[in-house]
Amino acid sequence: MSTEFTAGPAASEQPPVCPRHPDRVSYVRCQRCGRPVCPECQRPAAVGVHCVDCVRTAARAMPATRTALGGRVRDGRPVVTLTIIGLCVASFIAQQVIPGWTTRWIFSPAAGQIEPIRFISAAFLHSSSIFHIAFNMYALWLVGPYLESTLGRWRFAALYLLSAVGGSVGVLLFASPVITPTDVSWISGVVGASGAVFGLFGAILVVLRRLGRDARQILVFIAINGVIGFVVPNIAWQAHLGGLVTGVVLGAAYAYAPRKYRQVAAVSATVGVAVLLVVLALAKYASV
Length: 288
Fold this sequence. Notes:
There is one protein chain. Strand 1 and strand 2 form a beta hairpin. The protein has 12 helices and 2 strands; from the N terminus they run αββααααααααααα. Helices cover 59% and strands 2% of the residues. By secondary structure, it is an all-alpha fold. Helix 7 crosses helix 8 and helix 7 runs parallel beside helix 9. The longest helix is centred in the C-terminal third of the chain and has 25 residues, at 262-286. The protein folds into 2 domains: 15-61, no CATH class; 79-286, Rhomboid-like (Rhomboid-like fold, Up-down Bundle), CATH 1.20.1540.10. Strands 1-2 form a two-stranded antiparallel ribbon. It is found in: Membrane. One of its GO terms (cellular component) is membrane.
């Protein structure tokens, strides 16, 4: 008499494993896709758990939350602002330890004509005084995170960089190519993020007005620093003015663009201001 044994389904099936971690057995399944999910890949849901892949897919499908002026609401730190501060600090350290670093990147109308990169590189340099970079970085930290979150990262970055260029163009436009014992503005070097920072001041002034908020403190701050630029020697008020005007123009374009055409208007304004700055610089050089 022989006895036969038949293996049931439980004997032939393999235990369920997490797709992302095949070495981990899991009897818990995602409520969306039904796949096994290990504790590391589980994300709490209203009912049961979801896997990280389903959570990521759902996040992509959700519309981005926007600010009143179209900036994308993000959690975390102001990445662009911190990056700019980091670059300025790194460049300041390089100025102290690398011979010729300042001379290599400083802006003057004469140097800018040969190397246009200096129109923007000078905004990441500062004088040897720690107070110069400290004041500019403090001012940047005061207004940068707000503008970055309100306008969004790319518009804020464009605003800062074009304001820096606008500051250098302002220096160029007021400089005289005729070098005299009392006027060496054509070859005098200019450093500092002040032009870009003044561009942020101009933009935040417009943004605050657009949102119906009190902008008197910014107006007073701009006025005080404007007066200081004319009273205190060795301050390039031309850069302040150039950056401020650039910031106001871009800020107005970003803040007052119709919601439906906000993206197109922002790109058009950014390109338009960049082209205008190039044209003004070329026209000045052509007149020399």
